[in-house]
Structures are given as C-alpha cells and as structure tokens.
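Exercise (ungraded).
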Amino acid sequence: MDKKNLRSWDKLESLQPKVMHLLKQMLIKNRVAHAYLFEGMKGTGKKEAGLTLAKAVFCEEPIEGYKPCERCIQCKRINTGNHPDLYIIEPEGSSIKKEQIQLLQEEFSKTGVESAKKFYIIIHADLMTVNAANSLLKFLEEPGRETTAVLVTENIHKILPTILSRCQHISFTPIPKQTFILQLINEGIKKERAPLLANLTNSIDEALKLSEDQWFLQARKLVIKLYEIKSTQSLPDTLLFLQTDWLTHFKEREQLDIGLDMLLFIYKDLLYLQLGKDDQLIYPSYKDEWMQHALQVSASRLTEQIRAILEAKKRLRSNVNSQLLMEQLMIKLQEG
Amino acid sequence: MKFYILKERLAKSVQDVLKAVASRTTIPILTGIKIDVTEEGVTLTGSNSDISIKSFIPKEEDEVELVEIFETGSIVLQARFFNEVVRKLPESIVEIEVEDQFKTIIRSGNAEFIIHGLDAEEYPRLPELDEENSFSMPADLLATLIKQTVFAVSQSETRPILTGVHWNFENDELIAVATDSHRLALKKATLKTGLFGNNSFSIVIPGKSLNELIKVIDENSQEPVEIIVTETQILFKAKHLLFYSRLLEGKYPDTSKLIPTDSKTTVKLNTKEFLNAVDRASLLAREGKNNVVKFTTMDNGIIEISSYTPEIGKVVETVKSLSIEGEELKISFSAKYMMEALRAIDGTEITIYFTGAMRPFVIKTDEDDTILQLILPVRTF
C-alpha cells in the first residue's frame, strides 16, 4: 500500500470534519452500524476513512476511546494489508464479479481468524455486476455478529436501490473548488493549470502527482490540439490526428476517461464563456481564442455536444473499441 | 535469532505446515512460513486463515540433539522458496540466522542463501489455548469419525452452514452429523475423558478443514489426539503437530427429527454384493442427469435393482437379500449417495429401514451401532 495514501485521523478530520465527527460519535457511543455507504467525489478520502474506521474498530488502545493509535500491531497490520479479519474487495478488471462476493460470503460464514470482529470494505461498489450486488444483498440483510461493511463509491446513483436502503449513507463533501484551487496555487502549481487539476481530482496529493506526470502534461496538450484541429480543419484531418497521435497516447481505458474529461471541460468552458462566467474557466489561458468559438455556436448545440461526450464516457465502461468510440464522438461533435 | 537444526527434521516439518499455506491469498503474509525459536525448540507455522498447522521440533528427542539454539526470535519466510531451499541443501545440518531488517541467512555446507524475510509480528495470532476445555480421542477413531461423515457435507455455498460437519457434545458423547439436505451421515463416539462438566454444546467445522485434517493425522495410530475448542477455532493436538481450524458461524438445523424411528419394510443385505450391484446399475444411469437407480422387492427375498436411461439403455440385476420384512416396496434413489453411504459403513452386512417410497430411509449395520446413514428417495413417475 502506498504510504502517502495513509492519512491519520487528524488529517482526515481537517479534510472531512463532518464525516469524522460522525464516526467519532459512533465509536464513542459504541454504535457502529453493520453497513455504511461512503460516497463522494474522487480524492475525498473515502477509502482512507474506511481504513481508519477499521483501525479504530480493531485498535487495542484507541486514543480517547476512538482514535486509532497507529502503534499497536492491529493498526500496523491494517496499514500493511496483513490484517486477517479485514477484507478489501476491489474491482477485478472493470467490475466486481460475483465470485469475489461469493468468496467474501464464504469467508464470513466462518468465525473470525483472531477475534470475533470482521470488517470488509468494497471499493468502487458501483462497479459490482448485478449478480454480485444481489449476492451481497442477502449478506447485508442478515449481517453476522460484529460485522461491519463499508461500501465506497464515487457514483451513488449506480448503486442498486435495494443495497442503498440497507446502508447508512455518509457523504464526503469535496473541498469547494475555489478553495481547492487556491490551495493548489499555494502548493506552487501555476495559476493556469490549477483549475484543470481541481476539476479532475479533489485530493491535493493526487493533484500534485498529476502536475508532475509527463503523461498528463502531454495529454493536456493533445486534448487541446484535438479540439483545435476539430474546430479549424476538416473531419478526415481530425480522424487522422486521432489515429496517429491521440489514440497512441490514450491507450488504457482510464487514460481515455481522463482524456474525455479534459475534452468535456473545453466545452464547459465554451458554455461558461457564453454565460459570462469567466472566473470559472478551466483553461483560463485559452480564454481569448475560445471566445471566438463560443460566439459562433448556439447554447443548445453546445449542450448537445456535451451530451455526446458524456454518452461516450458512459459507453467507455461497457467494453467498446476505443478507436470506434472516439471516431464516432468526433463525427458527432463536428456535424451540425 | 540463530540456530542449527537437522535438515531431515526441518524438511519434514516444512512439508507438514506447507499443507496449510495458501497458494492464493489476499493477505500477503500468509504466503510465508513462520519460524519461532524459543528455549524449548523450534516451531513452524503455516496458515491460509481457514486452517493453520503448527509443527514443533523439540531441542532433544530420544537422547538425540535435534536443534542447537544460540539466540531466540521469530521470522516469516516465503514458503515456496524456503521449502525448495531446505530440500536441496547439501549437508545434513542447517544453520539459520536472522540479521537486521529480517535478512535471513541459511547455511549448509558451502552453500549460503540470503532470503528477505517478513516481520513475524504481522503474522495472524492463533488463539490462546485453554487446556481445561479439552478432551482426547485416539487418532484412528478420529479419522474414522471424520471419514464416515465428511463426504455428506453440502458442496454448494447457498447454505454455508451445511458445508460443515456438526459436532454435538452431550454427556460424554460426541455426535457428528453432516448433511447436504438430500442425505445425512451420522456417527457417534464416546469420549473417555469427561469434558466441560456436563454441559452440552455444539460446533460446526468446515468440511474442507476436516478433509485436510485426515491428511495430516496418522490414521493407523492409537495415539490420543487432544481436541481443544475455543471461541473462534478448534484445535487438534497430536504429537508435535497442532492443527487449527476456524469454525462455521450460525445455527445448524435440528437433524434429530429427520431420522425416522419406525419402519415399514426392513431389508438386510450383504454390503459388498449390494454395493457392486448398485455400482453396475449406475453405469448407465451416470450418463443421465440424475444417476438414479430403482430398488424393488420381489418374492422369495429377491431384490431387483434397475436403471433405465431412455437414450442409452437399461440394466436389471437381482440380488438375493438376507431377509425382507414388512410391506412390498418400489423406491428410487441416487446411486452416488447410496454408494458413498455403503462405503462409509464399515460392515459386511447392512440393514435398510424403509418407511414408504416417498420417505427417507435409514441404513445401519448390526456390527456397529454408532453409525447411521440416511438418504432421501427420488420421485420417479
């Protein structure tokens, strides 16, 4: 596990004061529920909060009765991923399969390895297949003694309503964008770059990492270039550029997802320009150039284009050929 | 940590604990073998979190020095490498030493291995033993008890509790029951050493764990195996070998009411003849979906065993029974279940008690009244 990812209770408290206060009250009053749903934007510290809760539950000598000590063997083993009564399920490939949930169920039909307590965390719970979700359901309905579940998701609307109704929801609020941008600038990120990073993630660590990532810097350039070619040249040229430069850079699905996000932000900017909300621009350095484009296109056309990108983002999850997906999107964006 | 050890003994212990080491696990530390060195000797531990095996090598045995200890301590070493390394070492004496940062040096003859170990602190802790909550049983009896029941556990995870064998202790008697809701195996054993006062209590042990256990205990020995039950685990303690298993959680269904006490038709048969006949009849039935054979009582104590699979063919065989009492009967049942039940019953003659074609029937033997097998018939018309 990445050491950088492990934040202490105090750090999480400054990040998510409401959530941590809630968890603290639960722990002190000894009223930990059997299932939680942690939902919130990427980088809001959901997984860390889940692990911290696990540590607080297992910790031998919690400070003031709720704060994990980070020193005892239980806390240490959770940090290194070696705790025998803590299970973390993460998507295998693009989804969480039924077999994974079944293994979990098998595990939980038995007594704990060391203590009677058991804890499981499901990361990206929205990526469970319907079968997996239904298997989990039975399990959530009849929780064992001292079993705690934490489901983590960025996309609460994709969780089955039947699962939703069986969990206690805890919302992780992102840091307000403007505050976050200021924080990034304080950390030494250039003023023009900060808004884009703030829109991609809500974690300072991740933003800083991205800003130094060569792949990301190149990706940003390519996305803007793609947009420029698309708006100034003919469709065959766009498709050629897509083929030769763009797709070779965005090989993985996650990379393409980021690419589509960045493309989406361009159209968002155009919309902001039309509406006169210049201060919210994501690519402020292109303001003057894009003002032209913004004036030439209607608001309804813009929304159509944004919808096309969102549609492409959705289809990306269902195992499509990325080249076909992008080509189709370009045609949609260029027409009309 | 530093000690010298006889290679033969170390290799044997590693082999023993390796049976429990998981090949695939989500907990990285469980891919290792834990070595504990104390003043008394060396203990090796392997675990896949479901079962854990500990093997102890004492300092001395029968006046022979097995281990020479210079410094006590603990370390976890990757099981796969450690096993291979130990087996292929050149000399009969092995030196193992742990230096800073879990760096472990294994020396034998002119060979020297340096292996990066893991922190033994991170290894799961096995429960503390309370010797008072214990009883013992000869190894051969324990092996029979397991073999005669464990085959009947459910293979499907839809009802997890049925994948285990139910052990119920009551008044110095142990009743082991396994069922997959189509058949049931029951075995009783009397415990010589009284336990837990007169309390009755029950546990459910995963079938998979018991299957592993019979591989490690010596079924031909009369040596007692001590059995200790803790809140979360059960421990089987043989000489220098400890076998831990997690238990299944939940309430086991009450099976005592399922077993019919009366009988309408009672058939006594020679086990071997009957088993072979069912086996032959199932040759054709096996191809079909359900592997069902038909059992019909005829005149003069003859039993007809038949099976008919439309697309393949038909088989009929008669078996002479030793005695038939009661009503005439036509009944169908799974050949697989019948064969497994007959093999589990260790007797030359068996008696089957039927209570009608639609009711479960019981198989027993006069030679051993501690075992009982129950099978549900199959409806065929």
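Further reading is listed at the end of the chapter. For now, observe: The first strand of chain A starts at residue 35 and ends at 40. The two ends of chain A are 49 Å apart (CA to CA).
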